[in-house]
């Protein structure tokens, strides 16, 4: 029987420092992923710091008038009510990104708990949790979100909860599969033999090994959450005006598609670019965290 000290240094688990080095080396080789990473850094800095230094608020009606052209005072012009479009893009982006981030974190939490418990405890727990997961996957996500928001309301917190509750299933399946794999390793059997409690084994020995897959799922989940929030806001079921988001800015811009197309182009381009960037980053993280890829 191995001692607890030997369990901590089990040979099956790659040293943390070595994993960090191979991860960053592999990620830097992927130019598209690194470009997406730095694009996201710059965009988040602009969106979260910009409103603190920009002089206009998203609801303030300027003296320039409605649908004004671009100028030094209003780099993106004004909308149909004379509000500064640049200020609305900054504040709208902040809310869209916060909703996407919060929904992603809730989804990861729910999916990780369900997938890890199902994979580790097995038997009745596995049957119940995975059948619930499969039942949720049978429901079209977008229609589930629409129905839930129609019934429960469209407050920002409700939007976050509903999006999270509609997207945790893929995370649960990924964590479930990884947990099944890792619980068969010898260091887990040694921990069992040493008398470690099941919950301690799950949290201390298995979850850290599943973490790379959770990180990749998180980057893809936040892209999906942003796209979903934008879609439901465009349909009028998301964050309600006058609070701006990129989605409800698109909704307002559709009636000015020919007279002021920039009102729709700007939020549409922002949504497209940030979703693509998160997907490219997720692909890069998947390759960098894949042991088969690292060994090449």
Write the layout of secondary structure elements.
Blueprint: H1 4-8, H2 16-29, H3 31-53, H4 85-121, H5 123-137, H6 141-152, H7 156-165, H8 168-182, H9 186-193, H10 198-234, H11 246-253, H12 262-289, H13 291-294
Helix pairs in contact: 2-12, 3-4, 3-12, 4-5, 4-7, 4-8, 4-10, 5-8, 6-7, 8-10, 9-10, 10-11, 10-12, 11-12
Structural features, described:
- The structure is a single chain.
- The protein contains 13 helices and no strands.
- The chain has 296 residues and is mainly α.
- The chain has one domain: MetI-like fold (Orthogonal Bundle), CATH 1.10.3720.10.
- The chain starts with a helix and ends with a helix.
- Residues 1-13 have low confidence and may be disordered.
- Parts with pLDDT < 50 across at least 5 consecutive residues: 1-13
Oligomer: single chain
Using DSSP, what is the number of strands?
Answer: 0
Instruction: Quote the average pLDDT.
Output: 85
| Fold-level CATH name | MetI-like fold
Count of helical regions: 13
Helix content: over 70%
What's the architecture, going by CATH?
Orthogonal Bundle
Note the overall shape.
elongated
Going by helix content, strand content and strand pairing, the class is mainly alpha
Output the radius of gyration.
23 Å
How many strands, which pairing sense, and closed or not: the largest β-sheet? none
């Amino acid at each position: 029987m191995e001692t607890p000290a030997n369990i901590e240094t089990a040979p099956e688990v790659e040293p943390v420092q070595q994993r960090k080095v191979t991860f960053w080396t592999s990620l830097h080789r992927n130019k598209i992923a690194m470009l997406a990473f730095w694009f996201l850094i710059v965009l988040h800095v602009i969106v979260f710091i910009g409103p603190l230094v920009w002089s206009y608020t998203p609801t303030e009606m300027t003296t320039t008038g409605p649908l004004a052209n671009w100028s030094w005072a209003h780099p993106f012009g004004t909308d149909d009510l004379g509000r500064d479009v640049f200020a609305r893009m900054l504040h709208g982006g902040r809310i869209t990104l916060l909703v996407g981030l919060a929904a992603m974190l809730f989804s990861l939490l729910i999916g990780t708990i369900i997938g890890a418990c199902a994979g580790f405890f097995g038997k009745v727990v596995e049957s119940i949790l995975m059948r619930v997961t499969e039942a949720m996957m049978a429901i079209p996500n977008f229609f589930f979100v629409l129905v839930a928001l129609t019934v429960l309301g469209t407050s920002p917190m409700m939007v976050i909860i509903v999006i999270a509750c509609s997207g945790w299933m893929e995370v649960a399946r990924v964590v479930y599969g990884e947990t099944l794999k890792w619980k068969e390793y010898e260091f887990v059997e040694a921990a069992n033999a040493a008398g470690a409690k099941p919950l301690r084994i799950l949290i201390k020995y298995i979850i850290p090994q599943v973490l790379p897959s959770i990180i990749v799922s998180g980057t893809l989940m936040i892209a999906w959450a942003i796209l979903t929030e934008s879609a439901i806001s465009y349909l009028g079921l998301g964050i309600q005006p006058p609070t701006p988001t990129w989605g409800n800015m698109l909704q307002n811009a559709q009636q000015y598609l020919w007279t002021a197309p920039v009102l729709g182009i700007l939020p549409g381009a922002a949504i497209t670019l940030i979703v693509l960037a998160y997907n490219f980053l997720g692909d890069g993280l998947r390759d960098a965290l894949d042991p088969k890829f690292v060994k090449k």
